Amino acid sequence: IVMAAGVTTVTGTSAAELIIGVNKTGNVSYNGGAGNDCIVAGGQSATRNTLDGGTGTNDICIGAPGAKNTFQNCDQTFN
User: Fold this and answer.
1) What is the pLDDT of residue 65?
2) Buried b or exposed e, range 57-77, using 16+ CB within 10 angstroms
């Protein structure tokens, strides 16, 4: 799933997914849903990302360098 340029929230499904964020500022929310997901956030110093792996059992969340990244329900996190 590639985040559309005009949105600030992306939510996965019950399938295992790769979620790719875009470079934007402000508050951005990512939710993996129920699958085993990999979330790659976008953004910069003016970005506040919330990465939630969801209910999957093997979620990997990668925050954007320079952004303020908050992780929830992620089995592995990288900044």
Assistant:
1) 95
2) eebbbbbbeebebebeebeeb
